[in-house]
Amino acid sequence: MSLLEGKVAIVTGAGKGLGRAFAVDLAKQGAKVVIVTRKDLEGLKKTYEQIEAIGGKALWLQVDVSHTEDLSRMVAETTKRFGRIDILVNNAALIPMRKAFNEISPEEFGQVLNTNVMGAWLSACAVFPSMKEQGKGKIINIASETFFTGSHGFAHYVASKGGLIGVTRALAVELGSFNICVNVVAVGFTETEAATALVGGDVKKYDVSRTPLGRLGQPEDVVGTVSFLASDAADFITGQTILVDGGRFMH
After folding, report:
1. Given 60, 148, 157, 189, which residue is catalytic?
2. How many angstroms separate the CA atoms of 140 and 152, rounded?
3. Contacts of 200 by beta carbon, 8 Å cutoff, 6+ apart
4. pLDDT band, very low/low/confident/very high, at 198 (cuts 50, 70, 90)
5. Helix/strand/coil (H, E, C) string of 195-249?
6. Rounded Cα–Cα distance for residues 227 and 26 (Å)
7. Is the pLDDT reported for residue 202 higher than 90?
8. Long-range contacts of the stretch 80-84 (C-beta < 8 A, 24+)
9. Rounded distance, CA 169 to CA 139, Å?
10. Distance CA 15, CA 10 (A)
């Protein structure tokens, strides 16, 4: 029996990069997967095709995680198609342009927090009734190693990922009595489309000298941690932050 056989997972921000990798791996592990994104519908369809190609079952939806009406529709469509919601992977995130901290506009700072923190909180609120009713659930929030190390010109993004870790801990306390586990995977610099854009189109520019494993992370380095936290094997793990960064930050 596969690790996640019979489970139903929702992955936000699944149109490319890590979101696509999470969705495909969850399907490989036996889960039925609902994949959503705000605007990258062509990418989302490619994710859907990859899941279908390995014999998985999936549903794709256009969803803005900062809009409660979209999230209500996401939950309704998921339960209509697959009957339940076992897993939520909050991967959707706005990755802004780098700017000096005092050059970021209040509007841009707020927009990043709105998507990266409030969007994850709203998504958790949306799936909570289903998880509560069935007496179990797993919520996995995708944060960043930058919260622990800081990052030049990234005050808004780093703050948002710290906020996400804070929300995770608060939810872990509140949802524990419902047998819902809430954890964070904090990802180091990983070779994706977004990361490539951050370093000017050439990932070789990224300095790996501070990374003990001496290389860039790949999506396949991260997916196993997410699928593990989504599984019954992690039923006694909640409120935790697991870094997957090649050892760049140790705590």
Report:
1. 157
2. 27
3. none
4. low
5. HHHHCCCCHHHCCCCCCCCCCCECHHHHHHHHHHHHCHHHCCCCCCEEEECCCCC
6. 6
7. no
8. 81/34, 82/8, 82/32, 82/34, 82/57, 83/8, 84/8, 84/130, 84/134
9. 12
10. 13
Helix residue spans in the chain (DSSP H): 17-28, 41-53, 68-82, 106-113, 119-134, 146-149, 155-175, 193-198, 219-230
Sequence ranges of the domains in the chain: 8-190+217-243
Q: Are 16 and 43 in contact (CB under 8 A)?
A: yes
CB 95 within 8 A of CB 17: no
Enter the tokens of residue 123: 């998504």
Report whether 87 contacts 140 (CB < 8 A): yes
If one looks up domain 8-190+217-243 in CATH, what number appears?
3.40.50.720
Residues 213, 190 contacting (CB under 8 angstroms): no
The pTM for the full model equals 0.95
Our answer to whether residue 206 is catalytic in this structure is no
In the numeric block, which tokens belong to residue 65?
């995680």
* The token pair that represents 108 in the structure block: 């841009």
Q: 184: which 2 tokens?
A: 């964070």
100 has a pLDDT exceeding 70: yes
